[in-house]
Amino acid sequence: MKKKLGFMTDHRFIIGVQIVLSIILMISIIFLKVLPMRYLIVIGSFLAVLALLVYLVAKPGPIVSRKVQKRPLAGKIISIIISIFLIIGCIFIQSGKAAYNKVTSEYDYVTYSLVVRKNSKYKKMNDLLKKTVGYNPNGTKIDEALNRLSKKVTNYGVSELYGVEAIVDALYDKKVDAILINEGSRDLVTDYKKNFDKDTRVIWTTKFKAYNKIKEEKTLDILKNPFCVYISGIDSRGSVQEVSRSDVNILMTINVPEHKVLLTSIPRDAYVTLADASQKDKLTHSGLTGTQNTVKTVENFLDVDISYYARVNFESLVEVVDALGGVDVYSDKDLSAWNGQPIKEGWNHMNGQMALAFSRERHAYTTGDRHRAQNQQAVLQAIIRKMASPAILTHYTDILKSIEGTFVTDMPMDEMARIANDQLNTNASWSFQSSMVAGNGIMMKGGYYMPDTKLYYLIPDENSVEQNKQYIKKMLKGEEFTVE
């Protein structure tokens, strides 16, 4: 038995394991496609030299003294330790690839809930036999939701209701016994009926995948041609992939060859034509039927082709900034943010909570939402700059952990890796320009989702819209311009 296992203590076997693990690590790094060739050559050369040196130490020599006998043993121990680190490195890279895969998705999630009045007698599904369920026939995946409901309750009536007000009023006025609502619209419902959550209860839920890929085929080479990414900032109760209102809307036009970025903010309350309904409402409400609808709405509004989207939960802002070790952001005044966070005029090194407070603050400014959009752009620029620095390597695992579950995009992993590879290869500094769509706020009725309720809308200024269109077109053409 000892003879059979003896080969495992042989220096050739131990060094062989180290060499195999080194090769596996190099293959993993190469397939990650993030590091430029010069980095790969350095890493590969280092691993090869390391294996050779350890082999020379571990190789037995003539037995003439105890010191000579101890050297091969030390070499074997060193090789084993190196092999352990190589295994950790392989696991580290595979976990990184898994994290990348988790943030890429072609689907939104839509959750429907069957809601009844809290003081009603309906406790379980069968209690709705021969009762009436109200629903909005224009809802995403609503037919599939009704099919699943029919398997739970075989005999019930339905009432088609259009708009949040109609469906909620029908439940309160007892015109229907239950309503089927998209959970993504719950905040909209509670805006209309403040006590809705207290007055009702859910007796059944069901979830669906909704396909949201923007483009079936990507024809641009993003390292050669400028492209647009729509960024949606949400504050949803559930997953970042759950359909919900879009509270932050930024179109990021990126010119990788010139290392330039244009950030165009669109107010959440902008009164625009919703792509799926062909009727006007707040831009934020476009997200209630999925990311794809918001992207198409923005494309139509700004006359632009969007290549990718990214959705981010406010929670991820805190974690990403902390994972980066904080970011440096300029404030044009002293202020106490909405949560009491003090921010001084000038440059501030912000942690996650401070960056979030700065991004959300609007009451401290005379221009309100407009200045808040400027602050959001400033924080986003700071994050991009930090990620374009060597910090992306030193904080690699922390960043991936921080975005898991709070960030999702349809940009393929290979494309993200290409951009990272180009940045590491060039180590270029990026220049930013910022702009936003201006308009006039007004309280009025007439929005698609809540037509009979007076809400605040921002009517876009046509000159501002046209000016922003021109900025985007010039960035896409690689032309020089300055935002006024």
Can you characterise this structure?
It is a single chain. With 484 residues, the protein is an alpha+beta fold. Helices cover 43% and strands 22% of the residues. It contains 16 helices and 19 strands. It has helices spanning 2-5, 11-32, 37-58, 66-103, 142-152, 164-172, 186-192, 196-199, 291-302, 314-323, 352-360, 369-387, 391-394, 396-403, 413-426, 462-477, and strands at residues 107-117, 132-135, 157-160, 178-182, 200-211, 227-234, 248-255, 260-265, 271-273, 280-282, 308-313, 327-331, 335-336, 342-343, 346-350, 407-409, 431-436, 439-444, 455-460. The strands form 6 sheets. It has a 6-stranded mixed beta sheet, with helices on both faces. It has a 5-stranded mixed beta sheet with strand order 3-2-4-1-5, sandwiched between helices. Helix 2 (11-32) runs parallel beside helix 4 (66-103) and helix 11 (352-360) runs antiparallel to helix 12 (369-387). It is globular. Mean pLDDT is 85; it is low at 1-5.
Protein topology:
Layout: H1 2-5, H2 11-32, H3 37-58, H4 66-103, E1 107-117, E2 132-135, H5 142-152, E3 157-160, H6 164-172, E4 178-182, H7 186-192, H8 196-199, E5 200-211, E6 227-234, E7 248-255, E8 260-265, E9 271-273, E10 280-282, H9 291-302, E11 308-313, H10 314-323, E12 327-331, E13 335-336, E14 342-343, E15 346-350, H11 352-360, H12 369-387, H13 391-394, H14 396-403, E16 407-409, H15 413-426, E17 431-436, E18 439-444, E19 455-460, H16 462-477
Parallel strand pairs: 2-3, 2-4, 6-11, 8-17
Antiparallel strand pairs: 1-4, 1-5, 6-7, 7-8, 9-10, 11-16, 12-15, 13-14, 18-19
Helix pairs in contact: 2-3, 2-4, 3-4, 4-14, 10-11, 10-14, 11-12
